[in-house]
Amino acid sequence: MQELTHFIGGKHVNGTSGRYADVMNPATGEVQAKVPLASDAEMADAVAVAARAQIGWAATNPQKRARVLMKFVELLHRDMDKLAEALSREHGKTIPDAKGDVMRGLEVAEFSFGAPHLLKGEFTEGAGPGIDMYSIRQPLGVVAGITPFNFPAMIPMWKFCPAIAAGNAFILKPSERDPSVPLMLAELMSEAGAPDGILNVVNGDKTAVDAILDHPDIMAIGFVGSTPIAEYIYSRGCANGKRVQCFGGAKNHMIIMPDADMDQAVDALIGAGYGAAGERCMAISVAVPVGEDTADRLIDKLTPRVEALKIGPYTAGNDIDFGPLVTREARDRVLGLVNSGVEQGAKLVVDGRDFKLQGYENGNFMGGCLFDNVTREMDIYKQEIFGPVLSVVRAPTYEEALRYPMEHEYGNGTAIYTRDGDAARDFASRINIGMVGINVPIPVPLAYHTFGGWKKSGFGDLNQHGPDSFRFYTRTKTVTARWPSGIKDGADFNIPTMG
Question: Of the listed 161, 238, 246, 281, which one is catalytic?
Answer without folding.
Answer: 281
